[in-house]
């Protein structure tokens, strides 16, 4: 398969054990060439998996994309010539243009003094320079082997940096010799991806004038070489506005990154007749009744009869056709929806909590089927356990010999093929050889996905409770996987920093989404299946286009690795949760942050919108479920042209107005949330005794 998708300037993807160099050619096409691992090359030691700066040890040297590579045909992978791959030392050599090492502290404190004495309106914006300059000046000293000066520089100024950079500074403090830099990928990323700062033209002119007057070339060189300053016209931003948006590994997103058009609308539902309920049939003698009832039923199915102007074309990506069983399920869904509780501040959902007791195997992932009939747990002992949460037990299909005796024409053939002898409430699936970090049921409930530290994603049949396929593409732990809302496609993301799009009937990925600077920790499909959101330990969220593999949105603002994502049912908004205990709300169409929900005191592992999108539920390691008023959070949004152009967002001061309720467990961290079709909220987690 030719892999479509634009790789970022320093993305390397691993395929089948080899490192693949990504050569960027025409926009939207990345060709991939596999390179065998080199002999005797240093391996970077992997840091604790999942940490914000987890390094990858690749079986060979890290290869960086080269824009000049010759590509014969976009689809011709074998004929790719990858030229002049710069090695690590070439990447670092930019640090050669050094000044007098003894003056670095003076340069930095001079700039610090200038910024702190500037007008309030400029101070907040220019203060963003402190961290990237500190890192690059420190690395320049280390690279040029001025170890004592570097140590003194670090000790004097590291305390001035913002608290959310502490983890990165810890990594930096361990780089004290030139040799350390060569194997460190966090370092490489910092070098190769320019740190982005968004500054008003007035503040930028002030800085430029100051550096030129002082003839402070050292700092000016770093600004030009290593920073990308996104200059906008207009008022400088306030400290609060900047604080809301910064904190990621590579600074803010460039404004261009969020300009592409995104089709965030929903696809039109297929039309089919909803059969009448038994209750309706009773009224058929009286002429008027069924006629009145029928339109009411049809309205449920006709939510999206009119084409949404923001929706993608129906055939933009090929989606699987609806089988009869899917249609039946849709009908059931509509009937349930007709009885759905309308939620709101005055009508909060009941919450049913599934607590996993004695889960000494270590519960690492949970999913619940759309119809809330089954629950699955992924465990650290590498098992996947499926429970039935209705009185109906789980049964396997009969053996081939028994199946041959069944009358294929009988009405209850689906019932007859099930083997009663296998009925049980729990099925345990064995196959992984490491903790299972992600699980996902297919929409039709026939399949189950699981992904593990062993680097594989497995597809299980829920008819036979056996493994059908093991997908091997990631060489490192896979942190999350999820089925498309239409089935067939699924996405996975892992420690190798890329997300992959798969189809159940292909053993190789269809798309590779490369661009994150650290582990991809969570993945989610947009409700229309044309886009995928990924959250990462680099503290950014990216939205990818499934059609061409392009990154169409980059959201920055979280101060820790992202662990949960949820799209609103109408497809317009995205909610994200991270280790910083904040839930951030994003407007996908405009590419803007539109809300911040504060209240949790620990990592947020679960986010879910109610079926009609009125309420957002969040679940956290702080043992609470919180309910937020989503309608109020998204009304009266400031999405005028000025806000979109400059990113001047004005978040409401107090998110407590949006908090509708906090529900404590005794000692159970919340790892999963799910709204049933009638809007009952299900939550799940494993009781922890400490």
From TrEMBL:
Biased composition (Acidic residues): 274-285
Protein location: Nucleus
Presence of the UniProt keyword RNA-binding in the record: no
Biased composition, class Basic and acidic residues, residue ranges: 297-308
Renumbered ranges of WD repeats: 356-397, 429-464, 471-502, 513-554, 555-588, 597-629
Subunit structure: Homodimer. Component of the TFIID basal transcription factor complex, composed of TATA-box-binding protein TBP, and a number of TBP-associated factors (TAFs), including TAF1, TAF2, TAF3, TAF4, TAF5, TAF6, TAF7, TAF8, TAF9, TAF10, TAF11, TAF12 and TAF13. The TFIID complex structure can be divided into 3 modules TFIID-A, TFIID-B, and TFIID-C. TAF5 forms the TFIID-A module together with TAF3 and TBP, and in TFIID-B with TAF8. Component of the TFTC-HAT complex, at least composed of TAF5L, TAF6L, TADA3L, SUPT3H/SPT3, TAF2, TAF4, TAF5, GCN5L2/GCN5, TAF10 and TRRAP.
PANTHER family linked to this entry: TRANSCRIPTION INITIATION FACTOR TFIID, TRANSCRIPTION INITIATION FACTOR TFIID SUBUNIT 5
Official protein name in the record: Transcription initiation factor TFIID subunit 5
Organism (species): Chloropsis cyanopogon
